[in-house]
Amino acid sequence: MAGRQSLAVGVLAVLALTGSTGAPSATSGGDASAKAFSIQVSVPGQGGATAGAVSGPPAASGAGGGFAYPADGSIAQAGSISSSVAGFEGTANEATATVQVSGVSLFGGEITIGSVTSQAAAKASPQFINGDTNGSGVSGLVVLGQPVSGSTSYGSWGSVSVLQQSATAYRSSGVRGYTAGTTAVVVHLNADHAGAPAGTDIVIGSTEVSAEIHMVVKPPPPPPPKKVAKPKPKPKPVEPEKKAEKPGSSLPPIQKIPLGVFPKLTAGGYVFPVYGPASYTDTFGAPRADTGWHHGEDIFAPLGAPILAVASGTVYSVGWNDIGGLRLWLQDRAGNEFYYAHLSAYSPLAVNGAQVRAGDVLGFVGNTGDAEHTPYHLHFEIHPTSLLYKGYDGAVAPYPYLNAWKHLTDLPLTSVSGWAPLISDSSHAPKPGAILLQSHDISSATGLEPASLRRAMRATGSGAGDGSLAQLAASARKRLEPLARAVPGP
């Protein structure tokens, strides 16, 4: 990915503390906390390992030396690690955390880092509140042999995020505080790789600190007695003290579903993912029993309608799962990723690692997986490069992008080589667009169950005679390529 960067910097501010109506405010103590770790490896189903984890106050430091996971260091190793925290609590509260890691090698040297420094500080006193993440940095980052200076993709297997930082001041009627934190490097796997399963996370250099001060407002002193007795004026009604806000409540809540987020996709030309007539609505974020919420859009089309590469890029993760059925992923040249599910069959281009162009035919509309009892459709998702650090939940609503992309509908479906000829209205056979394979394409299959279908699809890769799927892909590419003009996303 050309920048899987999630730099979440909050309000970097110094808040002057002033009392409420009455005498100057006084303090009644407060809190400070700091925690840090050098390296943490999380492997689904296997646990993982954490090195250099410390917390305070009081002051503490993590053991130095090296690190390796597993014992042979094939997934992660470092030549030197150190971590420390410090802080104190009283009339003023302060917390600091520092992590240093050097000589990092991940996945047998495919990712190397010269040095990592992660720092965070927070301070709260009656006079001021402040903090920072100054001094944090990553140097000598090399991914698959290429030096990089920021967040990027890790081939087709995952992402590398650099310097995720936050620093936020907050205040309410009784509490003033500051929080700060830095995560230097996060490597996330979307697919199995180098002995590590999909979902594996490696976090290097994490610091998190907070400090807050509690304030007490003294009531105003009573007025001095009057020498001349006068009617006492009616006291002004005292407004009830507002309930203390929860620290940080003025900040927008973190939303699980990224609604209203539409980052610009920058890989070049994009085309609509389904060829021919299709319909769709905006159902992104709707509740779903299997995945919690709908991560994409359902594009309804006839059985067997061609499914197109929306951009030029790399095909990966081609195969079957119980929810998506026959599915695949496409990563464009800017690192954005697109998910296609419920296919009825693949084209010969649907091979892991295949380089395709916008408009190439990747497969055909169906209802495999958990869509078996629904109308034929393509489940389509967009995962922008800037949100890949969130894993599968880093999806955005495809609806505005689909509205903007070039929809290839100006060729009659029956003119695409490899599709069946027109069938009379009295026939019960499927109409054009529902025919997925010619007779010789399935001659080696025992049936149209997924395993046999996949074997038949592989057999078509040799470019068999007229009507084969290899012929379909070549002809479709030739006819559709002039239509795949550069159409930017919204």
Can you describe this structure?
- The chain is mainly β.
- It has three helices and 26 strands.
Task: Please give the alpha-carbon distance between the first and last residues.
Answer: 20 Å
Q: What is the string of helix and strand elements?
A: EEEEEEEEEEEEEEEEEEEEEEEEEEHHH
Shape call: flat
Strand pairing plus helix content: what structural class?
A: mainly beta
Q: pLDDT average, as an integer?
A: 75
**Integer-rounded radius of gyration:** 30 Å
Contiguous helical run count: 3
Measured as a percent range, the helix fraction is under 10%
Q: What are the segments in which pLDDT stays under 50 over at least 5 consecutive residues? A: 1-24, 240-255, 409-470, 479-490
Question: Approximately what portion of the residues adopt beta-strand conformation?
Answer: 35-45%
Total number of beta strands: 26
Main beta sheet: strand number and arrangement? 9 strands, antiparallel
Please write out the topology.
Elements: E1 26-43, E2 47-51, E3 54-56, E4 60-61, E5 67-69, E6 76-88, E7 93-106, E8 111-124, E9 129-132, E10 137-139, E11 142-143, E12 146-147, E13 152-154, E14 158-171, E15 175-189, E16 201-216, E17 287-288, E18 292-293, E19 297-300, E20 306-308, E21 313-321, E22 325-332, E23 337-346, E24 355-356, E25 361-365, E26 377-383, H1 399-404, H2 450-459, H3 469-480
Antiparallel strand pairs: 1-2, 1-3, 1-16, 4-6, 5-6, 6-7, 7-8, 8-9, 8-10, 8-11, 11-12, 13-14, 14-15, 15-16, 17-18, 19-26, 20-25, 21-22, 21-24, 22-23, 23-25, 23-26
